[in-house]
Amino acid sequence: xxxxxxxEAFALVVRLGGFEKAAQALHLTQGAVSQRxxxxxxxxxxxxxxxxxxxxPTSVGREVLKHYRxxxxxxxxxxxxxxxxxxGFTTLPIGINADSLATWFLPALETYLATEPVLLDLSVxxxxxxxxxxxxxxxxxxxxxxxTPMQGCRVxxxxxxxxxxxxxxxxxxxxFPQGVEPEAVRKAPIVIFSRKDAMHGELLFxxxxxxxxxxxxxxxxSSEKFGSMIASGKVCGLLPEQQAAEFVERDELIVxxxxxxxxxxxxxxxxxxxxxxxxxxxxxxxxxxxAALDQTP
Length: 297
Known about the structure:
Layout: H1 4-16, H2 19-26, H3 30-44, E1 49-50, E2 56-57, H4 59-81, E3 90-96, H5 98-102, H6 105-108, H7 110-115, E4 118-124, H8 130-135, E5 141-144, E6 153-167, H9 169-175, H10 182-187, E7 189-192, H11 199-208, E8 216-219, H12 223-231, E9 237-240, H13 241-249, E10 254-255, E11 262-271, H14 276-292
Parallel strand pairs: 3-4, 3-5, 7-8
Antiparallel strand pairs: 1-2, 5-11, 6-9, 6-10, 6-11
Helix pairs in contact: 1-2, 1-3, 2-3
């Protein structure tokens, strides 16, 4: 049986990035927090925390955190059911891809967030990586491009986001006067979200039958800035239809490869908990996403 006072100290050290900040949050001395974490490790018989800067959980520590967050979620639901909802807000840690956050996610939840005492703790990563956050227990649910649920989780289809490669007319004339060929792609600057982002490679593979072995990459980890960066004429880049529409309407951007569309099917994954708050959030998210995103069988 875990002593949740000790687990809470451990969880805060990880979440806040250090013993000092955890001590401030718990109104304890730094030594007292360190002692609680050490006692938890002794009781569990395992090293739970790597004493790095910032501290990070071991694989066993991640399992303890996952269990703690799930129990905490259920306890908060119990408090609501007993009439304790007025005590404050419920915080839901959610993993999300940057493009969803920049486009449809918050509008889809506008009514729910306006009427329910819920706060979101959003962790942003590539849609191919968000499941790791769920697996490690850092979030209760995530938006991912993967359709297969992990053990102990449920999955719901949300909808599709369609991407094309955009640029300005001047950019196309400068870098692709003879059309989009592999050699020209290697020389032309392209904006990419991060080194984890492989979507541009997928679309170019569709178009060329091969993935270019190198790019003149401009890394920009901000989906909100992609449209204006591409419209500056310095780069080309992938945009979802929702972001590109306003630039296309103003004739600021054109599609570089009109025949090529990369479709990303998004799914909602969450722990299969008997949590009323998590179930209500899931229902609101699925309904909002299906109204905002393209739906395919």
